[in-house]
Amino acid sequence: MRKLIGLTSLGAAALLALSACGGGTPASQSTAKASSGQVVVGSANFPENVLLGEIYAQAMQGKGVKVTKKLNIGSREVYFRALKKGELSMLPEYNGALLTYLDPKASATTTDETNTQLKSKLPSGIVPLDSAQAEDKDSVVVTKETAQKYKLSTLADLKPVAGKMVMGGPPEFKTRKQGVVGLKSEYGINFKSFKSLDTAGPITVSALSKGQIQAANLFTTDPAVLTKGFVVLKDPKNLFGAQNVTPVVNDKVVPANAKQIMNQVSAKLTTDELISMMKQINVDKDDPADVAKEWLKKESL
Amino acid sequence: MEWQWLPGHLDDLAAATVQHLQLSLLPVLLGLIISLPLGIVSVRWRWTYPPIFGVANLLYAVPSIALFVFMSQYVTGLSVASAIIPLALFTLSVLVPNVVDGLKQVPDPVRQAATAVGFGTLRRLMQVELPIAVPVIVAGVRVATVASISLGSVAGIMGLGGLGQLFQDGQQRDIPSEVFAGIVLTIVLAFVCDLILVVVQRALTPWTRARKGAAA
Amino acid sequence: MSTFLQFFLHWLTSPAQWSGPDGVPARVGEHLYYTLLALAVAIVLALPVGLYTGHTGRGGFLAASIANFARALPTIGLLVIIVQGLGIGLLPPLIVLVALAIPPVLINTYEGIRNVDAELKDAARGVGMTGTEVLFRVELPAAMPLILLGLRTAAIQIVATATVAAYVGLGGLGRFIFDGLSRQDYQALAGGTVFAVLLALAVSLVFMLLRRLLVPRGVRLQEKA
Asked: Is the pLDDT of residue A26 over 50?
């Protein structure tokens, strides 16, 4: 009898776990395909992309479109495949980065060039919408002291002294054309060594501040550049290309009015706006969802 | 450490905790369902034990991150299965040896007595051997549960949800209090589940208490 | 599964893999270094405590609680918060790995010493041995199998988890895994994983050898009986 009670309680606990799992948490909805009329917004797992996902999602929700959010996905492989399959309807991509992902040898430098090449490289059914003015590019950054010591203001200035410097950035920066490879071929820069750190995040910032690395790969919208007084080295050859925020959609599962709303948002998104929002998120520690809501209200979207 | 992030985000913490529970308990259940028959087979047919045990041990040695990455890239993509399947595989490395040990430590006289009284093999297994093995098996389930809750946070790094999301966000935006909250919640969750399992074990083995009572 | 194998074999056979600071030997060396260092620290911290609590019988509950607590610690979370406090370097992953290794060493040592045959301990005292002599000349050798099992479990866990050192910019086999993920170099990812598993198996074998060397013949024979 006791054993029966024991087994039943175990079984009940199991059923509870199972039912809770199927009970409509965001994670469990992952494999449902985007049904017609409903837009599924995805994003990569770094704060700026989550912010962009929130902005577009909330803008559409505000105009009556049914939206599900599947943000914070760990790898481009995974979320791009989901977009192709229709599990995601839309991704807030960056035209240059996406182009390089699809064609590592691509060399486009202006926004128009990038978008033309992107359109041709995307698989059929996947379409880029209008690009925003807002850009978030890679950059090579040094501390104020380093810039003064070696008189650095553009990337070309690094050539004579790079051999004494350790470069830090995300692992992929070492092998990308818009990274160490391109820095060498376009500017003749040869660093002493490369340290794989996080993707332009606090670890990289701290390593640069502490002198564990002398040059760092940070993003141009990173508020740390302002707060820490870092110097962004100019890129006259435009190695880091165009990186406009460009929503990319699966044409089959996105209604026309949703596309229109997204284009309206993109029209109002400038780099300065993006930088100030990132400051709210990274420095003031506000939530991306709240920052998105505030900005949309401000822009009457 | 600044604590001001915490008060405004209590419901996010709660949601992450619930999601983490689902993420880490289901694999233990799956692991148990798989390891019980595997363990029974290993004891009954001794020659199957080395390969089964070998595979279980191998799973234990695989770096968890690699398995999560592999699953989400190649097999199950966005779905929770990318987290659940690897976690279930890890629990096997604890549960299979424990099921086997539990069954092996059933005293021979007891087994023989059951056969003598007329129990068939299956009935003996279900009504005598497994119940006696329960304490050892539950000990394994406890370890597997704690390990699963702790490992489950790696899934959050891959964007699969749970308390790991707090570590990811806390790291990217440099919010130590968020990371701290995630650590504390993971530990508390582990302890609570462990306690529940101790209670379940007591409920399933009333005879151990009776014996103690008689001896006292 | 075949893609995984293909990746691994392709990666294995490219010559660049075997030389230089990013090559397989260098990474395996780093990985071993982190492992041995963490194991050594864990032994220094946990073994004496295990021996003492096992021998005196006191503090068993505390030992078990510490072990349970350490087992529940989420590795990534712990690593992140330590890095936020101390910055990157060897210390953060080391602390995390040591924390991971302490439970098996502590518990197994404690259990091993506790479970030594009471008659054996009695006999030793009867022959006139002091407490310390009993501990080191009787209990420790008798508990060797269990203690070695604890060390082996700890070592394998460390090898598998030392891959996280790469998360904070260090080396080791985790470098192949994290870099591979970020560069979409799935061959490196497969390679790093397989080598980590191979390393764990090698560690396992080393411990089997240690068993032959350190466990007294009498205890080994008794186990087989």
From this structure: no
Instruction: Tell me what percent of the residues of chain B surpass a pLDDT of 70.
Output: 96
For residue B203, count CB atoms less than 10 angstroms from its CB and return exposed for 0-12, middle for 13-18, buried for 19 or more.
middle
CA dihedral over A43, A47, A49, A53, signed as positive or negative:
positive
Contact B149, C77 (CB under 8 A): no
Does B78 contact A2 at a Cβ distance shorter than 8 Å? Answer: no
* Positions of chain B with pLDDT under 50: 214-216
Query: Predicted ipTM?
Result: 0.85
CB contact under 8 A, A17 and B203: no
CB pairs under 8 A between B and C: 110
Cβ count near B190 (within 10 Å)? 24
From chain C, the residues in CB contact with B57 under 8 A are 204
CA of A5 to nearest chain B CA: how many angstroms apart? 8
Q: Which residue of C has its CA nearest to A193?
A: C21
Q: How far is A196 from chain C (nearest CA, A)?
A: 5
- Does the model's pTM come out above 0.95? no
CATH 1.10.3720.10: does it fit domain C28-224? yes
Q: What is the DSSP letter of A32?
A: S
Which fold would CATH assign to domain A138-232?
Answer: D-Maltodextrin-Binding Protein; domain 2 (3.40.190)
Q: Kindly list the domain boundaries of chain C, sorted by start residue.
A: 28-224
The domain defined by A2-135+244-298 carries CATH number 3.40.190.10: yes
B158 touches chain C (CB under 8 A): no
Q: Where are the domains of chain A?
A: 2-135+244-298, 138-232
